[in-house]
Design goal:
Layout lengths: L5 H12 L4 H11 L14 H20 L6 H6 L15 H11 L6 H7 L20 H7 L4 H11 L10 H8 L5 H24 L11 H9 L2
Helix pairs in contact: 5-10, 8-10, 10-11
The structure holds zinc ion (ZN).
Length: 228
């Protein structure tokens, strides 16, 4: 390395003062990349290698942190950490982008999420649409809840994901629904299911003593509301 270069001289001078500052930060980054030898200026630092190592290490760190975030539990179930996906690459409407993001990041108005506001224990955040006593997760909502089956069935059939498929569990089904091939179809299904959810919730409020299941189809619900 050319010792006469001003950055080299500044680096050595700053290091000799043993101050906390950019030189310490650089030492830390190089150690983090397992490239401490470069800090002695005897070995040239390959910036491409350093960048690749930093990206790799940070992706691992980010992935570990994701597992401790309740809102990202669905995301880590259905995504591969090595894969960076962007909904922007797909030709989706703003509404569909928003809904599918809310699905992935757990902000849909499902009991598992809304129960947090009232400090309800996780096991008590059950689905209010059916009598299964299951926690209303994203998985329950899009694949299991019997009162949404009428909306769900034709879409899953269209995606080739309806019913029991050998070797394909619900997590795998969600991965396939969010894959490139099915994403648009999934968005349309999700939009219809959220509309149905709104209507079923409304019906539950208007007819609190209504015998279930089921709360009824959208059409049935609409007719009853008109007759009020
Ligand atoms: Zn349910």
């Amino acid at each position: 390395m050319d010792e006469s270069r001003l950055p080299v001289q500044l680096f050595k001078w700053e290091r000799s003062l043993n101050h906390k500052g950019w030189v310490k930060d650089l030492d830390f980054i190089l150690a983090y990349c397992n490239m401490s030898e470069c800090a002695d200026l005897d070995v040239l630092c390959d910036l491409d290698v350093a960048e690749a190592r930093l990206k790799y290490l940070n992706r691992d760190k980010w992935w570990v942190e994701c597992h401790s975030k309740p809102k990202l539990r669905t995301y880590v179930q259905i995504h591969d950490k090595r894969e960076i996906r962007s909904l922007v690459k797909h030709n989706l409407s703003r509404k569909h982008r928003s809904q599918v993001s809310r699905f992935k990041f757990r902000t849909l108005p499902l009991s598992l999420e809304t129960g947090r506001y009232n400090d309800v224990e996780i096991e008590d955040r059950v689905c209010v649409l059916c009598a299964s006593n299951s926690v209303e997760t994203e998985e329950h909502f899009v694949l299991v809840c019997p009162n949404l089956e009428a909306v769900r069935k034709p879409h899953l059939q269209n995606m080739g994901l309806h019913g029991t498929i050998e070797g394909v569990d619900n997590i795998e089904k969600m991965k396939r629904m969010l894959g490139h091939e099915n994403l648009k179809k999934f968005c349309i299904m999700l939009e219809e299911m959220l509309e149905e959810l709104d209507l079923l919730d409304l019906r539950r409020v208007v007819f609190p003593n209504s015998d279930g299941p089921p709360y009824g189809s959208v059409l049935h619900t609409g007719v009853e509301l008109i007759n009020l």
